[in-house]
Specification:
236 residues, alpha/beta, Uracil-DNA Glycosylase, subunit E, binds iron/sulfur cluster
Length: 236
């Protein structure tokens, strides 16, 4: 499975399916931000990262232009990544609370991070066409990450993208259709392999600087994830 994931990583990194995103990610990598002028930007699509045996999948929206698109790793080198990694660390899913560069030694435990779109989009807004073009990679990841039981979707777009993909893959959605609400969790599919999806506000600056999302609220999301993964321990 690890080699199949490695193969998928190579395919993702070489992808040029979305002309607008290819232009943008490469332009950002050429022009750079002044504070990162000594960086060689990654400027390509980002593969997922984490434990191939993970039971928890964290689904983001897309890499940040000067975060993942610079460092070459999702949620690395930007404010969203710092928020997410601190929360994962506090919940025991990450080996360290920081995420600044690809070679900083971070490892994820029982968790895997990926995104609905793998290239940085202008204004953090991928189009529906770009979301559809990239969804095949998430589908392949889900096939390879056989132990995933809980999905934390960061933001409404990631939440909707996952539900769409689940439905297209024949997974039964509850009625009424799950609605995005921070902290809401829904059971998808049928036993013996039900999946739980948990909706969370994205830890974007827009949400964290306005107080819409606090560290406590994000901690609550990963406590919920733990409860779903370890129901017996949570009751003890
Ligand atoms: S967003 Fe996805 S499908 Fe589009 S170019 Fe990037 S990796 Fe390829």
């Amino acid at each position: 499975m690890a080699s199949a994931l490695a193969q998928l990583t190579a395919t993702v990194i070489a992808c040029r399916k979305c002309p607008r995103l290819v232009r943008y990610r490469e332009q950002v990598a050429r022009v750079k931000k002044r504070e990162f002028s000594d960086w060689e930007y990654w400027g390509r699509p980002l593969p997922g990262l984490g434990d191939p045996e993970a039971e928890l999948l964290v689904l983001g929206l897309a890499p940040a232009a000067h975060g993942g698109n610079r460092t070459g790793r999702m949620f690395t080198g930007d404010s969203s990544g710092r928020w997410l990694m601190r929360a994962l660390y506090r919940a025991g899913f990450a080996s360290q609370p920081t995420s600044e560069r690809r070679d900083d030694g971070l490892t994820l435990r029982n968790a895997y991070i990926t995104a609905a779109v793998r290239c940085a989009p202008p204004d953090n807004r991928p189009t529906q066409r770009e979301l559809a073009a990239c969804s095949g990679y998430l589908r392949q990841e889900l096939t390879l990450l056989r132990r995933v039981r809980v999905v934390v979707a960061l933001g409404q777009i990631a939440f909707a993208a996952f539900l769409r993909l689940a439905q297209e893959s024949g997974v039964a959605l509850p009625h009424p259709r799950p609605k995005f609400r921070h902290g809401a969790s829904y059971r998808l599919g049928t036993p013996p392999m039900p999946l739980v999806i948990i909706a969370s506000y994205h830890p974007s600056r827009q949400n964290t600087q306005t107080g819409r999302l606090t560290e406590g609220m994000l901690d609550h999301i990963f406590q919920l994830a733990r409860q779903h993964l370890e129901p017996d321990r949570s009751r003890a």
